[in-house]
Amino acid sequence: MNDVAIIGVGLHPFGRFEGKSAMAMGVDAIFAAVADAGVEWGDVQAATGGSWTVANPDAIVGMVGLSGIPFTNVFNACATAASALKTCADGIRLGDYDIGIAIGLDKHPRGAFTEDPALVGMPRWYAENGQYLTTQFFGMKANRYLHDHGISQRTLAKVAAKNFRNGALNPNAFRRKPMAEDDILDSPMLNYPLTQYMFCAPDEGAAAAVLCRADIAHRYTDKPIYLRAVEVRTRSYGAYEVNTTCAPVEEDVSPTVYASRAAFERAGIGPEDVDVIQLQDTDAGAEVIHMAEAGFCADGDQEKLLADGATEIGGALPVNTDGGLIANGEPIGASGLRQIHELVRQLRGEAGDRQVPGAPRVGFAQLYGAPGTSGATVVSR
């Protein structure tokens, strides 16, 4: 079995790009990643990619070069990019090829995610009563969690304000204007306790990562980042997560718990070893919840950690240093590879004004994709 290294990352900025297709953004991300890796497109021997809005992202080879490589399409909702990364890495680990690329791209219309639930096997009434990928579900989930663990609504505002500050330092972010906590709290209430600016926005963008066998990584870069683990897990029967009304009342833990534990076990690294963290912040409540689910704190400890500045760029647990989804928005297929792009930049010491101090060595990324798939990734220098 081969170890795997990330030798290049590329990103098309996230935001709104009138007249530019998701595929065109994907082309830009691919060429940026290939250039960053110090290879040519002809050196890439396999690709994996995913998108919500593009039915066949494999067609991108017609835009970057018809080299005949195998291309595997994947889709796992918001966990799509983690799935693409894992599929690419597994091919290298098994010795099928030496160099591969993982790609994510999407272009969403303005507004909340309200796609047809039938696309993921759910009955239409699930959307009609406000529970499918809408602000209603996220509000209900955050409200219950805050109530159960004694966390204030202001803590949610702290999460959003922190991510807006970090986004202001990120030239590729969608929202690049800091926002005060009080302004976030005073913005229109969408679904209690979540106000307008506690949510991410569906938008547009693309990202890519070039992977290779770890033993040949130094041929291409003097700063390889090693992919220690990528684990994907689905929800168990009864888990308290999206689509709970199709499960019994008894609750289990989120698939994020299982994916994170599996990733740390495979990597031989614990949460206490992580220097920089990327968590899915579809809303501010999600970041709070995922902090505990991924193992970085106990349920209820988030209030003090946020108040003490632990999750700031200079804190003990820097979370979403590039602004996360709240500042970047979410083109579903690309979000997870945006996380990897940020972790690679951080571990290389190339994150500029948002660089975590102290030469970080270990990074962690987490994604949660409805209706119940979670991905967790561990990388290190």
Automatic annotation (TrEMBL):
Domain Thiolase C-terminal: 254-379
Classification via InterPro entries: Thiolase, Thiolase-like, Thiolase_C_2, Thiolase_N
Residues of the Thiolase N-terminal domain: 4-173
Protein name (database record): Thiolase family protein
Lineage: Bacteria, Bacillati, Actinomycetota, Actinomycetes, Mycobacteriales
